[in-house]
Amino acid sequence: MRSIVSRLIYSKSSISRLYTSGLLRNGRLLSTDSNHVDEPFKVEEAETLNVPPPPSDKLLVLGGSGFVGSHVCKEALEQGLSVSSLSRSGRSSIRESWADKVAWHQGNLLVPDSLKDVMNGVTAVISCVGGFGSYSHMYKINGTANINAIRAASEQGVKRFVYISAADFGLVNYLLQGYYEGKKAAEAELLSKFTYGGVVLRPGFIHGTRRVGSMKIPLGVIGSPLEMVLQRAKPLNQIPLVGPLLTPPVNVTTVAKVAVRAATDPVFPPGIVDVYGILRYGHKG
Ligand SMILES: NC(=O)c1ccc[n+]([C@@H]2O[C@H](COP(=O)([O-])OP(=O)(O)OC[C@H]3O[C@@H](n4cnc5c(N)ncnc54)[C@H](OP(=O)(O)O)[C@@H]3O)[C@@H](O)[C@H]2O)c1
Question: What are the sequence ranges of the domains in the chain?
Fold first, then answer.
């Protein structure tokens, strides 16, 4: 129902914009000013309604015990979703009331059998599983583990799958080859298995408060000012080799918000969302 309503309103707003600006002919918009030809009509990204998802939506967060994953779980609960998580350690060490509302499962994405039961009845998956280490470890955690999850979700008929990948960091990619190769392999699998419901988010550095044991590390002290400055410096990002290092950081709550929206909003466009897209969607409210 929500899907139909959002689609109707979506198409209505697009059509009304066509009428207010002129007539659509041969893929171009002709303005009412006869000398003026507008650029081809471009559908704005995710012109979605911020309607809360139906409570029947069941979200599985892979890596819900981690830094990004815990924020995703919290955001999804705030949106009224039923939330479960899977990670090797199981329950998060966070002692906050929202954590009691998550169904915590223990399992390893590198052992596909772990995935059989947790996917039952799940409507959407957000994977926050990734990590660093040796080449083969990085390839396995970022690539193979997520590919296993994408295949299991597709076989179980899950509708939408969001994968937290990473921005291209130019020179750094050579130093973290397994990380980026793994990410790219998982992205390719997602876009082929979930043509209509697969979304890849590619943030750069994610800041916020990261917990390490009982300690809270306020990464935002560095991340927030950098985000403010660099989000307005997009052209610098195009400079060969060093440009990607100027990719703006993004707040973890923004990433979580966009991930949950991408997982639950049926008109959120499938495909890759770069850091500037994440910032835009995050500010859309
Ligand atoms: N943090 C950043 O600045 C940043 C920037 C760009 C992209 N990203 C990406 O965002 C994602 C989340 O990052 P994060 O910083 O939140 O990482 P994190 O804190 O290390 O969380 C990773 C999560 O994945 C789980 N996990 C790891 N291996 C697993 C496996 N084999 N099976 C099941 N669960 C597994 C971990 O729990 P267990 O160890 O208990 O299994 C943990 O819950 C990653 O893909 C990362 O590459 C992060």
Answer: 1-44, 58-283
What pLDDT, on the 0 to 100 scale, is given for residue 227?
A: 66
Closest approach atom of ligand 1 to CA 109: 32
Q: What is the pTM of this model?
A: 0.81
**Does residue 263 have a pLDDT over 60?**
yes
CA of 129 to the centre of ligand 1 (A): 4
Residues 97, 104: contact at Cβ < 8 Å?
Answer: no
Q: What is the whole-number distance in angstroms between the Cα of residue 126 and the centre of ligand 1?
A: 12
Q: Ligand 1 atom 41: the closest Cα is on which residue? A: 88
Query: Within a 10 A sphere around the Cβ of 265, how many other Cβ atoms?
Result: 20
Segment 79-100 shows an average pLDDT of 94
Residue type, 47: E
CATH of domain 58-283: 3.40.50.720
The token pair that represents 72 in the structure block: 């995703």
